[in-house]
Fold these 2 entries.
Entry 1:
Amino acid sequence: MRVLLFKEETSNYKDALTEGGYDTLFIPVLRSISVDIPRLRELIHKSAHDYDAVLVTSQRAVQAWKEASIGIDSPISWSNIPFYSVGPSTSNALQTLKDTINPDLAPRDVLGGEESGNGNQLAEYILSREEKPRRILYLVGDKTASELSNILQDHGVEITRLQVYATQQIASEEIETTLKQKECTDTVWSVIFSPSGANVIVPAIKNLKLDTKLASIGPTTTRRLQEMHMNVDAMPARPDARQLTEEMHKSDTVDRT
């Protein structure tokens, strides 16, 4: 059964779904570019003592940290500062940083990824810790929601938001053309990862009259799909590839009974 995943290809989703008996096809809906890398580089070089933690909620932000860290030979160490993340994919990306950059600039402790699947859950996790951080550096993109940082600030945590990447949405017409080229008329599942992605994916699906079930990653994506009058057939509790596969299997089992 073919599954369309509207994101850049990652091994965790490909492997989990393939093992689950699905044929995967990845179609990106965003183009990302790094921004303000010189400022991040200067911050990494000079400001480790200014923060109790670093907050990273996307793999693109991890990539920006990697780009800014390359070539820095600094006596200041970030390895003792905890990095908080959402979901296992971002956590895994953070944990592998030590293999590609100066280990002193990579985190030793990556926290929250297994316990939290969205920003609200991560905020609760951070605030529940015995040693709650007081000053957090938050690496964001141009479309990163402010809800997570607002919750933390409401509880007395000082947040420094630094934009390190920007995203450009691929037009719905381009996605529709790609779906035609890939001959996706036999698609059983479509997996949508963000509200902004839903805005361009749903029109393409409707125009092509694809008879596809929808899986949604995260509650905000689900709400957006419902606002667009689309039925969501599977939503994992966390943005985890194996949980997604399990939820899709459950839905497929119901269909067969």
Entry 2:
Amino acid sequence: MDRRQRKTRKAIFDACVSLIEEKDFQKITVNEIVERADINRGTFYLHFEDKYEMMKSFENEMIEKIEEVLVNNIPNEEQFNEQFLKSRYDTLVQLLNCYVENNDLLQLLLKSGHNASFQAKLREKLHHVFTTKVFPNLKLDYEVPSDLFVILFTSLSLSLAEYANQSNKPIDIEQLAKMFFNILIHGPAKTLGLLQVDDVENKNNYF
């Protein structure tokens, strides 16, 4: 994509971000998008077949950004040890920063009614990354299916990103990452103080 194409795509994206604050995505027309972007219809259709294909393209763009963070931080064989979780902290900080830095894109996907589609694509991508590059090197507790882990990881990370984006106060990404790890490692019940360590270890008391 050359500079001119990137500029046009950015204008279309900015127009969509603006319009989604005013009306539902289903009510937004291509005419409104091109008028707000200050381009003609022909230029729009050089980039996208219609507004739905446009949103799929935006979905893929966000997923590629997330995948880049994860793939660039895949641990080497020596890092798959007791320090594995600690070594993933920096990765999580980068991932949350990715969400926050691309807030407009993420919010467009969520507000346009493409949340389910986006999360499904993201789970599929994360499942591939985890099952091919991470899980084979770990000793997994197969009482918890890998699919379930991916769903929980995806939902929790997106929820924290949405929390950061909607907060009225400045968010410390590193502190948010620590919160994520606390929930991920200890679980909601222990994090909230509803369970003690002995209770967690003696899970037969509950299940």
